[in-house]
Amino acid sequence: MVFGFEEIESPDFGDLQVVWLNLPGAFAMHIIQRNPSTNLPEGPYSATSAVKDPSHLPMGHHICFSVPNFDSFLHSLKEKGIETFQKSLPDGKVKQVFFFDPDGNGLEVASRS
């Protein structure tokens, strides 16, 4: 391990291959198999036409952060009028919200309940 990541348990996504890696004290990285046949845009400005639909982000390129108070964070996004896509993992332990920053970068914020 060059960077010191250790593989941690990840949810079962069926046919989708996912690896979650943890760098203790820093962050976790999720590596998700991309299915090119879905033709999902990478982001609103890299697609062939501008698409700003955060529901495309779970399988598109994005970076994920966690926050100590997910519900408060979600409320602040809604107050600012930021379009979001919410979901929970099948086990219900992880809540997720996906959205774009002003430059069109895909973001996810997740919290374990």
TrEMBL record:
Signal sequence segment: none
Annotated CDD domains: VOC_like (cd07245)
Xref: InterPro entries: Glyas_Bleomycin-R_OHBP_Dase, Glyas_Fos-R_dOase_dom, VOC_core
Keyword Lyase: yes
Coiled coil region boundaries: none
Gene3D superfamilies according to UniProt: 2,3-Dihydroxybiphenyl 1,2-Dioxygenase, domain 1 (3.10.180.10)
GO MF annotation terms: lyase activity
Keywords of this entry: Lyase
Entries under Pfam families matching the protein: Glyoxalase
Key word Lyase present: yes
Domain called VOC: residue spans: 1-112
GO cellular component assignments: cytosol; endoplasmic reticulum
PANTHER family for this protein: GLYOXALASE FAMILY PROTEIN, EXPRESSED
Protein known as: Lactoylglutathione lyase / glyoxalase I family protein
Species, as recorded: Arabidopsis thaliana
Taxonomic lineage: Eukaryota, Viridiplantae, Streptophyta, Embryophyta, Tracheophyta
